[in-house]
């Protein structure tokens, strides 16, 4: 996996569940990790200390950091005079120590240019660490940290200095003009032609000139055509222009950032236990940052605990501060763990967005003719995923609508604010909420029912998105709209409003609707999964997926059982080391040219990227694809031939001979394998036969998706030429395999099968932006108190389509949790960006208001999930979409209640009182 040896494992693989785990139909009664959690087992990374980790020293050291709270004056050192002599740190680490020791910032730009502020320079961002203090015992650490907290005299500043905040991060533009009808080839689109990228002059993107030259010039010509059509619009057109703002917020994950690292200088091993959604990246980058330092490094031993982060623990810088702590721990394990003040000060935030939209709508038909959007998001003082968040927000701005012409641009700005990253929603919450609020206003101006207006413009199956790509599968928006229109919250809204307000003077009743769809995945998703069984049918399942609270370990396990009729007896999640998959990954899936990829893929062991983090709602579909493919490959190479062998025993070809039995007839029924009228077989019977015949008894697969699945062909002896939706395969043979076949198992006891050919989606697919969507609509009924401006939700009803539900209870949990997050974003949560914001280190939940049960209509909320189209309908990643539709639904409901529109979030009671004044 890495240029140096690495070893990784999930520190807490869920224990085997009790016998009552499954209910009728093979569905789980509780989560796979439930017993460990409710009985106090150590599961989360934050639970662990050195004494809990096998092979680690038992003495635990602790560290904390001091932070810069201003960026206008140069850092002039730290003053620890407040500490008594016995409270001085055992080790003080400054920027100059890192330079002297050759420790470098990983991935410059993405993570900034320095870990700690250099003396004589200004901080790049508010809250940037300036020093790390390490203590070899907890008592002194705790007292010293409490002594220094909130003191203005510890971090010393000199005179004014030049800004070191980086330059703005990037700007992109997505322009599309269709060919006259949705089915006709586009005249211009990002997928067909290009995404337009540019730089800045100040804070303004400098777009290329229009013309007939290269693709970017032609794109600007198309953009000018759209602008001219809007400018020339007559009375038969509605031209609606509005500006919106969506605030910065904190994810408020209950597990704050943390890690525990032990550098063993004697062995050159860096042992790490960190909370992360991206373990592969942490292991890889930790090796890079230490590789040229004075600290000899032979291997990285990464352990991964459960975590939760809503995206903010994906490619975050915090784990690398934990590595720094370990390097300077004098051979002791060092724990660096944010408390809640520090979490507010340093954790990745949701991006603030400024959005300027224009809609051109035909008054007669009530259909969109064009839409433009100019979006700016504030990425703070480190780039992180800000550029990607900005562009994803722009591509999502169309929401659920078909737009014949569109021009969406994103400008991703740097600032001295706390850095923002891949928080749940990833830019789409901001832009789609604005679109949905604008759609309601347009419907009012056109005199149309808001749901009817949406119905006239909804994206239908086979239509293109604003990048010119056709989304995967059926678009079921009309079905959702019809259900919403018939729901009592909507159909009775006017009667209920009159009745409620007559009975409640001083209060106003309102109903609102929001309808969005959210892409899932990144356009460069990859995963590994492995299944193997012994002659007694003991089934082991290994996967890169690890638990971040979504129930991924449970759902992946259930998927195996649904295909094989047998749940794994042994599971290993969060697996990072795969010696049976000796792949060569360039990990440049977004920037590689088609020519370079064509050259690379001649190597049968090359792949665009090794594995994905736990993010982007990717577990059930993308990581689950690896699970499903591993199980299906095992069916092809082991289960089907073994079952066929059993059914063919005896004179005249056995029980199978009189019937026509095809591979597609194979079924799982009541935990057994059958086909047509054949005798149902237990998995143990099939396993014994597969080993007796020396068939494949283990498979490991690697998958890759670029808004389309990679496929490869493999020559597999008597199994022949096989094509699977994977790009790499390793197999293990059964006990009775020939010596020649067993001799092939040289990759950690497996045979890595060089593919005969591979088909990767063309790199141009990157310009598709997205092709996989999960839709959700939410109806909200609420009351506004005219005196206080307070908003109370009475109830809300959501309608979601997520394909086949693997574990419906997990879907329900995601819906409920996501709705609470959306309600908080709409009504309560807010962080100032600059000096009065979280970078000053004084923010906690006493100042930052989260919604509680009384705020989210917890006892009156309802939801329905559309049934899958068929039993082959795959599950969809839906953990992000669940929080978005409720945001515009609330704002639209407030408008229905009091007749006032709001364009900035959150809509607080103060803003409502001001609007009513």
From TrEMBL:
Residues 238-458 form the Aldehyde oxidase/xanthine dehydrogenase first molybdopterin binding domain. Residues 484-856 form the Aldehyde oxidase/xanthine dehydrogenase second molybdopterin binding domain. GO terms for molecular function: iron ion binding; oxidoreductase activity. This is Xanthine dehydrogenase family protein molybdopterin-binding subunit. It comes from Mesorhizobium denitrificans.
